[in-house]
Design goal:
Elements lengths: L1 H6 L8 H19 L17 E2 L11 E2 L5 E2 L8 E7 L6 H16 L6 E7 L7 H11 L4 E3 L3 H10 L4 E6 L2 E6 L3 E4 L5 E5 L5 H9 L3
Parallel strand pairs: 4-5, 5-6
Antiparallel strand pairs: 1-10, 2-3, 4-9, 7-8, 9-10
Helix pairs in contact: 3-6
Length: 213
């Protein structure tokens, strides 16, 4: 598969080159499925966005994962809010902290509408991201951010359902993880509407989000 070819490139783990490749894989796949970045795929009204319009797409319908308190969570828990979902891991040196820092900026720019956005961080490294570690990590950015996890099998199933690509990369006695870097956004009814690109500014993300608030 094309994804596997990119994951086996010689670029160092988490280098800008690998991030561009992984982001390109995910974005290219989503754009191909929709027939264009800015064109609607049917269903809700068309959007003019800086990210990828996923309105009407038939994937990423739900997840069933645990929060740090051990409660099972699903998209239904966040009805009435926009849910912004990002897949990553707490030992990520750059992509994940950059995405979550941008999410903090997005909430500030939303002003009074900030409480209408729920940021959800799903770990692709459940072996190391224990509930305690996951909670400390997300809350270091914003107390409202929620970390979710599952066992390796559930993690893989969820990533596949969201068309997320990730893979372990050995680093001496340990490992890092290469992963795609899109942030998925669900509207207040729980339908997937947007994918925010990793390179988008917080201002451009807010422009996109306001169209579905």
């Amino acid at each position: 598969m094309f994804e596997r070819q990119l994951l086996s490139t010689s670029a160092p783990a988490h280098s800008p080159e690998r991030r561009r490749l992984l982001g390109g894989v995910a974005a290219a796949g989503l754009v191909s499925a929709c027939g264009g970045v800015l064109s609607a795929c049917g269903g809700p009204r068309p959007l003019s966005v800086h990210g990828i319009n996923l309105s009407g797409r038939d994937f990423a319908k739900d997840f069933h994962l645990l929060d740090p308190q051990g409660r099972e969570r699903s998209l239904a828990d966040f009805r009435g809010k926009l849910a912004m979902v990002f897949f990553g891991f707490t030992q990520c040196p750059d992509v994940c902290p950059t995405a979550l820092t941008r999410a903090v900026q997005i909430r500030k720019l939303l002003g009074a509408d900030a409480e209408r956005l729920q940021v959800i961080f799903i770990t692709v490294d459940p072996e190391r991201d224990t509930p305690k570690v996951l909670q400390a990590y997300t809350q270091a950015f914003d107390p409202s951010f929620l970390g979710l996890y599952g066992d390796p099998e559930r993690t893989a199933q969820t990533a596949k359902a969201f068309r997320v690509v990730y893979a372990k990369v050995p680093t001496g006695a340990s490992y890092t993880i290469d992963h795609s870097a899109l942030s998925y956004v669900f509207d207040a009814g729980g339908a997937i509407r947007l994918a925010l690109r990793h390179e988008q500014s917080a201002q451009d993300c807010v422009h996109d989000l306001r169209q579905i608030l």
